[in-house]
Queue: 4 jobs
Job 1
Amino acid sequence: MSGKENEILFHQYDVSPFSEKVRTVFGIKQLTWHAVEEPVIMPKPELTALTGGYRKIPVMQIGADVYCDTQIIIRELERRYPKPSLFTEADKGLAWAVSMWADRVLFQNAVAVIFGNVGQAVDESFIKDREALMGRPFDVNAMKAAAPLMAEQLRAGLGWLEDQLADGRKFLMGAAPGLADAACHYNLAFMRWLFPDGLKALEHLPKTAAWEERVRAIGHGDRQEMSRDEALAIAKAATSTTKEQADPHEPNELKPGDKVSVMADDYGRDPITGTLVASDAQSVAIKRDAPEVGEVVVHFPRAGFFIVKA
C-alpha cells in the first residue's frame, strides 16, 4: 500500500465550476487533498475506468471508494470531517435545496450568459464534446440570442443573495461559511474566469460583491498534485470501507446484491452498472470491477439520479 488509501484524491480540472464548489469546501474545512488533473473533454480513460463510465467532473476518490457528483462528495466530506460543519443548526435541509437551485437554475443562467457572449471563440472539439454530454446541439447563435434574457434571470438570482445578506451577516446562512456559500459562489467564479463583464450587476449589489470576496478569500485548503496513474494504482491496492446496508424504506424494492444501473436525470446519462452494496434516502453505492482499478465501490446521490434494476 502507498499510505495514501485514506487521503482525498480529487479528479478535477482547474476551470471546472463544479470542482470549484468542492475546492471551496476543502478551504472551509482546511483539508489536504490531491488534485488529479483530468481532461476537459473526452476521452477520459482513467476516470471512466475508475467510475465505470461516469464522465462528469469532479469525482472524489478515497482508496477504493469513488464518489460521483458534488452532492455525494460533500456529504462524504461532512461525514468524515464534521468540524467545522458546513451547516448551522437551522439549515441542514435548506442548504441542500439552495445547492440544488445553484446547480440547476443559477448555473444554467450563468452558462447561457457566458457562452452567449464568448461562444464564438470556443473550440470545435469542446462544442462536439458538450453536445455528446448534453444530448442536444450546442447552439452558439441561440445562446447569443438568449443571453440578454438570461442576464436578467441571473440578476434576479443574485438579487436573492443580496436580500439574504441584507441583515449584515457575513455568509449566506450566518457568521460562518458553509454549503450554501460554496454552491452559489462557484457560479460567480465561473463567470469571472470566462466572462467577467457578466457580473456587472454586482455594481448594484454591494453586499453580494463583498460576500464574493469573503468566499474567495477562504481559499482551497492544502492542495497537492497526483498523477492519474498513481490514483488508479491506489484504488487497485485498496479495499472499499463501505459496509452493506439495506434501506428499510426503499420505495422500489432494491436490496444489496441486486444488479442495478445508475444514471443522472439531467445530462451525462451514461448508465453505470454494478451490484448494489448500500443505499438510503440520499445515497446509493454499487460495487464493480475493472482491470485498471480492481474492485471499487462507486457512490452516487439519490437526488438527481435514477437507480433501476439492470
Job 2
Amino acid sequence: MTMIDVHKIHYAGWDNCVQVSNGIIDIVATTDVGPRIIRFGFKDDVNEFCERKDQVGKKGGDEWYIYGGHRLWHSPEVKPRSYIPDNKPVAWSIIDDGIKLSQDTEPETHIKKEMEVTMAADKAAVNIKHRLINEGLWPVRLAPWALTVMATGGKEIVPQPQKDTGLLANRLLVLWSYSKMNDHRVYWGDKYITLLQDPDCEPPFKFGLSNEYGWAAYANHGHMFVKRYEHQPDAAYPDFGVSFETYTTDFMTEIESLGPMVELQPGQSVEHGEEWLLFDNISMPSDDERQIDELIKAVGLS
C-alpha cells in the first residue's frame, strides 16, 4: 500500500509550507498564513488551484488577501467579519493520513478555524473536515463555508435538481446584484449550469443553488476537479437557503459549499466536510448536456 508522505517545503515564496502526497496527487498547505491549502493537483503537474502571483508569499499586515487556494470562512458574508486578515502563522500537526491546521482564535469574532486534511492511499482523493469553534462568551449564528479558488481557463459544471414536484417548485436559484442573467460565461441548461472562467472578463458573476446532488466539477488542464459535500434537504442555509455558491472574475472561479446555519453556543463547534476528487484525461466539455451526461457517468457522479 502506498504510504502518505508529509514533509515541510518552501512554496510560492512561503518558507513554511507542508506537502501531503500519496505519489499520485499532492496538496500544499501554508503555515505562515492561513489556514490555506494553496495547491492541489497531480504530483509534479499543474496546480488546479489559483495562485495570486501578486499576493503569494506575503505574510503579516492588516489587509486581507485572497492568496488563492482553499480557505474556510463563516457565512453570511459581511464586512468586516468575513474579511478579517488571516496573515499570521497557523499551528499544524500530523494526523492519520494527513495533517491538521489550526488558526489562532479571531479576536474580533472569537471564532477559531481548523481544517483536517486526509488523503486516500491509492487514488486521487482528499477529505477536508472544516471546523469552527466558538471560543467567545455568547452564541453566534453562522454557517461553515468552504471556498475553493480555481485556476483560470476552466469550465464549471453544476447539476440542477431534477425531482418531479408536480405543481410545486423544485429548486432555488439565487443571484447577486452584480450578476447579469445574460452573462456570456454562464449557460443555463436543463440538467446542468455551466460557468466558463474567462481571463479577459473582469466583471464578477455569482449564483447560488439548492444543490441537492452535493457536487460540482471544474474541467481544466485536461483534468477535472470534483468537490463533493452533503446537502441536507430540510436544513436552513444562508443566502435565502442555498448550500452551494460559485463566483467568477478574470483571475479565478470560486467553488463554494456551505453547511446549514447553526446557533453556535460558547465552547461548541460545528463541522462541514468535503471530498475532493481529481480525474485525468478529461477533454473540455461543451454545453451539450448529452456529452456532460456521458462525462459525469464516466467518473461515477451520476
Job 3
Amino acid sequence: MNPASTSSTTGRAPHRRRSVNRVPFVAYAALGVMVFLSVFPLYWMFVVSTTDSATATSLPPHVLPGGNFLYLANLVFDTVPFVQALVNSLIVSTAIGVGQAVLCALAGFAFAKLHFPGRNTLFLIVVLTMTVPAQLAVIPQYLIMSELGWVDTLQALIVPGLVSAFGIFWMRQHMSSIIDDDLLHAARVDGATTWQIFWRIAFPLVRPAAFVLGLFGFVNAWNDFLWPFIVMKSPERYTVQIAIKALQNSRDIDLGLAMSGSFLATLPLLVLFVFVGRRLVQGIMEGAFKG
C-alpha cells in the first residue's frame, strides 16, 4: 500500500468524523431551543401564579417562583366554583373525545368501505366544511340550541362537538389505507353484519388513530372558550375556561389570580399527557407511515 495514500486517508478520516459529529450537535441545539420556547410560557405562567401582579410586571422580570401559590389557589376556589367547573369540563371533554373517536370512525368507515349513491359528493361536502370559519356557525348553532331548550346546559356543549369534519376525514383516510377490502368481503361471506364488521374488525385495526383523534377532541373541548362563553349562563355550569374569565374583574386584572386559575386548568392536561403521551406519538407515527 502506498504510504502517501495511507497518510492522506488517515488525514481525512478525523475531518470526516468531525463533520459527522457536528450534525447531532446542531440537531440537539435546535431541539433544545424549541423545547425552551415551548416550555418557558408554561413555566412563566407558574412563576406569575406564585406572585402578585406587581411582581409579574416588574423590570427586570422575576424568573424564580414565589411563595404565594397555595394562597392564590385557595383564592381561586373561593372566588368561583372552580371544582365544579373542572368537573363540567371533564364531563364535556370526555364525552366529546369518546364521541369523536367512535362516531368519526363510523362515518369514516362508511365513506371508505361502503358503497352508496352520492358517497363521493357527500365526502367532498364534509371536506369543504373545514374551510368555513367556526365563528360563522355560532349564531345558527345558538338558535338551534335555543329551539331545543338546551341553552345553559351541558348538552349544548357536548352534542355539537361529537363529530367533526376533520375527524371524519382523518378516520376515512386511515380506513382506506389500513383495512383490506378482501378481509371485509370474507367477513361478509361468513355472515357478519355491517355493524359487526365495523366494531369487530375495522375499529380495532384503526384504534390508535381513533385514540389520537379522541385525545385531540378532548384537548380542544377542554380549551374551548367562545362557545361555552356564549351558551352558558349559570356559574354552576361554567367550564374551566369560563371560570378563569370570571376571575377577572371588569376594571382590573389580578395577574397572579388569573395565572393561578390558568395553571390549575392546565395541570390536568399535563397529567394526561404524561400518561398517554407515548400512545399519542405512536398513533401519529402509525398514521404517518401507513398508506
Job 4
Amino acid sequence: MFTDSHCHLDFPGLVEQLPDILSRMKAAQVSRALCISVQLEDFPNVLALAENHDNLWATAGVHPDYEDITEPTVEKLLQLANHPRVIGIGETGLDYFRLKGDLEWQRERFRVHLRAANACKKPVIVHTRAAGDDTLRILEEENVQGCGGVIHCFTETLDFARKALDLGMYLSFSGIVSFKNAADLREVARFAPLDRILIETDSPYLAPVPHRGKTNEPSFVPHVAKVIAMEKAISIEEVGIQTSSNFDKLFGLDQTEDAAA
C-alpha cells in the first residue's frame, strides 16, 4: 500500500540490519522504497541494493552538502542512470543552511543534475534548505518541466509550494510533518493536491512521531501518511494508494509489473 519515496538504506545503522528492515517494511505494508544516492563514491552500494531486491530502486546523484569529492558531470550521471534499476537523478539541489560563503559551485552542480535529468528523461530529486528563491529560479531556468521532479522532505512555505507545483513538481512529506511545531507544514499538506504528494522517511533521519528520536526506517512511513490523512480528512488507505500511484507516475513505473517482479 505504501511507498517510501526517499531513504538511505546504504547508510551505517541501516545496511547492517537490512533483512530485518525489509521484513518490517512488509509487515507495515510498505511495498517499495527508493534508495537515494548522495555521492558518486557510494553509488555502487546504492545500486547494489536495487539490483538485489525487487522492491528497492535507486537514483544517481551528489548531495549539495558534500564538498571536496568527485564532482558529477552530465556524462557521468547519464552513464549511471542508464540502468533499469536507476529511476531518478539526485538527490541534488541547494543548501545555504549548512554551508556558507561562495556557493556558486553548488548552483552549478544543481544545474548539471537538471541537465542530465532532462537528457535521460528521469525525474530529479531536489533538496532545498534556506535557498528557496534560487532553487525555484534554477528549476525554471533549467526547464525542470522537461524531466519532472520532487521537492523531497518538504519544509518550505506555502508560497514556495504553489510555485513548485506550478513548475510541475511533486511535494514529498517526511516525518517532520508529524512534529508538534510543524503546523505551517501541515497547512501545506492540506493545500497540496493529493495527486501531487509523495511520502518518505529520509531514513535514517527524521523519524516521525511516535518514533521521534529513533533511527528512522521505511516501515515508519505509514505514520507520515496518517498525518496527511488527518489533515485532508480522508483515510490512510487512500493516502497510501494515491501516493504510491503518484510515485509510479513520476518515476515511470508500472505498478502491475512491480508487483509481479
